[in-house]
């Protein structure tokens, strides 16, 4: 204002223009990053290994932005592996081109100096998310945090913490993860479990040779910290706790939530949870630990990662209402199945596959989003069934007869702005198991969940349509179901998949094709010029 009024001599139009420019530049910044995909030599647990990283760090660099900013990340791929980067939980409105899952929204960035610039606006969301490679298992080592600060002058809806820290939980293999996945595929069986879990890239003192590799967070007595916990593990759901300290959960998947006090939190791969911790115990050193959650006897790496916390509740604000769709235009029920299928090229003649409504998703050779907007025919069918082919006692005794799966690329078409309810139903095909499902391009409301079979006559009456959690990744309980609702207001092709990478590899995935609307801001943006080719 002072700048404008000091130029009293300028014509009115000019000063108004100047003011507009000032306001615009005060609101939206452009944040630029360069990501170099490189091989780095890292040592952990007595082993040094050469692995793919961004800019040589593990976890990779944190991306900072403020709500409303434009973020431009130029990725240059200097390794042999093909790569893409996904901004997990960013809605990318109308801009699927920047979303990143390989062969869904883009062809990979080719090894040997291929490059692509992810250019997107961060609007209508704030909080802590993460980015990761979205091709095969590369995200094991290629991931990092995204911080979206609230707009200037807008406070958090909880007491302001004195400081913050990132806690990124990861999974470590001595071997190259590509080789681990390939071996699993060749055998048609579950790939080798990891050798360690990590906290901020370090396994902690319970592992041999890892004294140097312990993360420690310095805190001061009496201060309150916000810990941004991210589960970046590839296949393991993890518990996290801090000895002697209570955590207050205030944000999940970059959505403010009703505060909840807990001594232990559980996160599925893909989920982020922010907790407030007050350093109010007797000064000393306290363990932080991350250990797998296992409710069914599948092979898992049960080793706990540890780190050290070292001494040196507010209601959801009216600003962030839960806008839950009340009426539902499309009811979807997807069953989650595991099967053993014949496989001529596999060593054992058969292999494990996973399916939704008996469909094992086949990855296309060109990106679905590209095929859709480029009018390429024959890449996919848009007829993914809204219900399983047969009704059966989903969670009853193991049952496999008559439930053969097909390997095809089928998408579900959603009308622009329709309200959708999706019930994800686990089954006892082969075995029950829990599955964290992630939807790209959206947040959704978790309106209900339960054990056993979903009952469309009775269960909806128990839904929470008032203040359900809003997130981008949700667990489907082993032998149970989870119901989510969202409004299909983001046109494009959006991936839905289990965030356990081993299950994604087996085909536990599909995609929605959300049609363009008729309004001015209701259709997908045109593809960027440097979009990689397949
Ligand atoms: Cu965090 Cu499709 O991914």
How does CATH name the architecture of the largest domain? Sandwich
Distinct compounds present: CU-O-CU linkage
Strand order of the largest sheet: 10-9-12-17-14-15
Can you count the beta strands?
32
User: What name goes with the CATH superfamily of the largest domain?
Assistant: Cupredoxins -  blue copper proteins
CATH topology of the largest domain: Immunoglobulin-like
Overall radius of gyration = 23 Å
Secondary structural class: mainly beta
The residue fraction in helices comes out at under 10%
The CATH first-level class of the largest domain comes to: Mainly Beta
Report how far the terminal alpha carbons are from each other.
51 Å
Function: Lignin degradation and detoxification of lignin-derived products.
Cofactor: Cu cation
InterPro entries: Cu-oxidase-like_N, Cu-oxidase_2nd, Cu-oxidase_C, Cu-oxidase_fam, Cu_oxidase_CS, Cu_oxidase_Cu_BS, Cupredoxin, CuRO_1_LCC
Catalytic activity: 4 hydroquinone + O2 = 4 benzosemiquinone + 2 H2O
Can you tell me about this structure?
- The protein has three domains: 13-152, Cupredoxins -  blue copper proteins (Immunoglobulin-like, Sandwich), CATH 2.60.40; 166-311, Cupredoxins -  blue copper proteins (Immunoglobulin-like, Sandwich); 330-514, Immunoglobulin-like, CATH 2.60.40.420.
- It has five helices and 32 strands.
- The protein has helices at 2-5, 12-27, 177-187, 368-373, 501-505, and strands spanning 30-44, 47-54, 63-66, 70-77, 85-88, 114-121, 127-133, 143-149, 163-172, 196-199, 216-219, 224-231, 238-242, 247-252, 255-262, 264-267, 272-278, 285-292, 305-311, 330-342, 350-356, 359-361, 406-408, 411-414, 419-426, 435-439, 444-451, 470-471, 473-476, 480-487, 492-498, 509-514.
- The strands form seven sheets. A six-stranded mixed β-sheet has the order 10-9-12-17-14-15, with no helix packed on it. Strands 21-20-25-30-27-28 form a six-stranded mixed β-sheet.
- The radius of gyration is 23 Å and the shape is globular.
- Residues 86, 88, 101, 132, 134, 270, 438, 440, 495, 497, 499 line the site of CU-O-CU linkage (C2O).
